[in-house]
């Protein structure tokens, strides 16, 4: 039998704007997504107005408000600065240019019955920053904030408050996420809400690699946008490696002059400054990594004597190995080099690498053998590495603006003596034992082992990332306090500007929630699934090509 459009359950009259807001989504779900399962993966219905990563505490009531651009103001009630003003410009654009605002959508909704049950309007968001802005984000900065959406005398108002500009940034992101598109675009409905929020771990990062493939500046800035939307706060910039040296040093221009892929694939000082400033405006620290003594082939052409010549029999064979730790000139060079790095990158931390040092070339070289004899460390290449790292740490510790360094776990594993405030980044398998050892030694640590996003596989692998928790090892609470957080890593061997964003997101969003949200709220991937779908759609609406998590769709844009 034919059914008239009016009796079709998809078009039944809905009493409230709230329900119509929900129904807008439902119409598309019914018309586009028939069939519940496909290829073994269930179709997942996105939530509406939920926050990713999930806040510490969210309380809502059934009361709701409506809001639209013509009658909504952001009002700064206390301190302000460029970070806040630019954030308001950003979030006004994000909030009031969602895809429901387009003409086609308006036409789609013309047939809707327009019987308004009036809800109170939400007239604005008051922003109360109770302390002055800080200039740069840093490890351990305060990111706590509170949001209240409520009403008095039939007028809704919202307040966002924090003692820290970084908390205000996180709160603006949350505010943008609790709004549910209303079918009369461009308006939203939003429930009466109280949110209290703050991070579980202070260091929530993403590693990008600009040596294996050069990443254009814009891709790095997009990445910072999305980090901030995930409430992540560190861009770990693995800027050089064996394959290419795109970092332009003013003191040693030959490094990039001879070590970059070519002279278009460079990061000049102004561009690095732009990345740092963009990070600052988004509450994202930019922590550079200059990995030595391994992973350094690209340093060689521009800095003769830096790398160890490898021998075949009693002659150099023309190839080079790790940094030559026996060449005293190298330490003078490193001192100058890192002095410039420290001036260019304001973050107090620098990553010094130290991973995957191959000892073969050192073993072949007679000068190295002699040196080791003199030092009474014959045969112990871990000790030779220690000689190098000890000097490097001393150089970096004496830089005026740096007071911390991060190293990969091998430095610790090889028994190198490291300063007590070193942060050890754990990346290998068997991380539970490693974290137990590192923290038993009293060192701070970051977890990455379970979050190597460059390893791709079929299926909803975000669930694997989501099932990994940094506390999941045998250790005392004192040991667990040493965990600073972790980093997702998107190594660049098979990643360039064509796939950086879609391959990283929203897979790294799983890591973001593990590191931001309370442990007890971020355990269950099934309950996270509809929320991460909604969040992924929000990133799509905002213009980022973030990949699919499984069968689903986002309204608008044919996605
Ligand atoms: C928001 O309000 C609507 C309408 O009263 C209600 O149906 C819904 O459950 C509320 N949502 C939340 C998350 O409280
Ligand atoms: C927004 O601010 C303008 C300028 O102060 C004011 O005229 C307007 O009434 C405000 N709108 C609302 C909804 O409060
Ligand atoms: C927000 O303001 C309320 C009321 O003054 C206060 O109790 C709360 O601690 C503030 N929250 C933050 C994160 O500063
Ligand atoms: C190496 O050992 C010899 C003999 O025990 C000793 O004289 C020398 O000082 C040692 N050298 C170093 C660098 O420790
Ligand atoms: C913790 O220790 C217990 C008892 O020794 C062991 O059964 C368990 O596998 C360990 N857990 C981890 C994560 O290493």
How does this structure look, described?
The strands form four sheets. The chain has an eight-stranded parallel barrel, surrounded by four helices. Helices cover 33% and strands 21% of the residues. The chain is α/β, with parallel strands linked by helices and 559 residues long. The two termini are 32 Å apart. The radius of gyration is 26 Å and the shape is elongated. Strand 17, helix 13 (431-440) and strand 18 (444-447) form a beta-alpha-beta unit. It has two domains: 57-197, Chitobiase/beta-hexosaminidase domain 2-like (Chitobiase, domain 2, 2-Layer Sandwich), CATH 3.30.379.10; 203-525, Glycosidases (TIM Barrel, Alpha-Beta Barrel). The longest helix is centred in the C-terminal third of the chain and has 17 residues, at 381-397. One 2-acetamido-2-deoxy-beta-D-glucopyranose binds at residues 144-146, 161-163, 167.
What keyword list fits this structure?
binds 2-acetamido-2-deoxy-beta-D-glucopyranose; TIM Barrel; alpha/beta; 559 residues; Chitobiase, domain 2
Helicity range: 25-40%
Radius of gyration: 26 Å
What are the low-pLDDT stretches, counting only 5+ consecutive residues below 50? Answer: 1-14, 27-38, 100-117
Portion of residues in beta strands equals: 15-25%
CATH T-level fold name of the largest domain: TIM Barrel
Corresponding CATH architecture of the largest domain: Alpha-Beta Barrel
